[in-house]
Amino acid sequence: MGLTGAQPGVTGDSTPLAAPRPGARVPPSPPYVEDRVVDSAPATEAHCAPPMPAYTDTVEQRLLADPHLLRDIADAVGGPFHVLFPDRVSVNIGSFQSVFTEAGVDGFVYFGKKANKAACVARACAENGAGIDVASTGELVAALGQGVRGEDLMVTGPAKSDELLWLAARHRSLIAIDALDELDRLAALELPVRVLLRVLPEGSTSRFGLDPMELEQAIQAISAPITLSGFSFHLSGYDATARSELAATLVGHCRRARANGHPADTISIGGGFGVDYLDASTWAQFQNTVSDSWFHASPPGEYYPYHFPVPGSAMLEAVLAHNNLAALLRDNGIRLAVEPGRALLDRAGSSVFRVQGVKTRITQGNPYDILTVDGTSLSLSEQWFDSEYLPDPVLWPHSPGHRTPTCVGATTCLESDLLSRRRIPLPRRARTGDLLVYPNTAGYQMDSNESPFHELPLPPKVVLRAGADRLRWSLDSTAR
Q: What domains appear along the chain, each with residue ranges and CATH number?
């Protein structure tokens, strides 16, 4: 799966991007260099993958370094769980807002809620002047419940239900129109409604959006109490240039709509802002030397681009800079909306599993361990799309030992249910009761595909905040 989101075939911030199957070795680094958790020994076994340490937030580093807190949470929760750092979400929102300010552009950030259901993330949006992109009645109600105002919600998705359209209209939310019949159903409500028309990009085979003929019909059909506020699009992949150029085209649509008496003062370029999980050398070396011998059973088919050189808000800056899009927006009095999902969750959470069993297998004379943990790969969603979540999990507690090639299996009866097919170079052999912490999983991995398979409970979400003297945790309201 290419995975800006989590599923092949989904556009916008859930867009897949196929990356070639990779490989490589990384020079040894001491633990906690800059903001990476790094294994300090070199990988030498031909049947073991090289280390792939992830960038992490300082709060997560404190959690991993604390001798007791992680175990205390695990004992209290009693199963796999996710940890979220909402203060990091606030930082990420602020970085996008700063780009708009520095460019002199009227801009607005909508969090793509499908990327994570946690209430603390929605609350961070409310507290930091961001809106939320919702696609269901449940998501809309959840956003309102955390203090996001109706007028700061954008309602997207195909074939919206009558209930969703009615509720969105009642709260003055901005509605992205994906089909002409949605306009007919909104008109029947006889309520003031603001809409964007979602444009089908030229040459796209997406099932979403209005083609040129439908777009013209919609512009001609819209009249009070419906207001045409502008246009939107979503693109597959992570190309800043393509987004900038299509945004300029939408400025032209706004001008033409204004000639027909519509205000048309907003365009949305959707999501697809990449996240940088790994440093450049780690990712390049992995891509260049990947070997089937590093994997239990067959290796994945493709990967998310785990090193992204111009990620998040830096990508927005590149979009605004190309052909001076920022000046075009300013000159035409147009607000630019963005809908990042994963990018607002960068380094904002991790997933924790307890080791339930350890067994050894031998391939071509080389031993490696297979762990069974108390959760499933549904909590690392890439695995369910012939892909793999590559950043290394951290084995906790830290203690001395010998490097051990290790795969990680789930607690289900499915042969394919593996959290890590890749033989990870753990710094010591795992023991029953140890914890495995997968870093940076808040963006789609931790709950986009979770289900109570085998009647296992869903992993709860734990909110972690840095207090003046120590870290403090509580359960997210979605877990209560």
A: 36-85+347-479 (2.40.37.10), 87-275+311-344 (3.20.20.10)
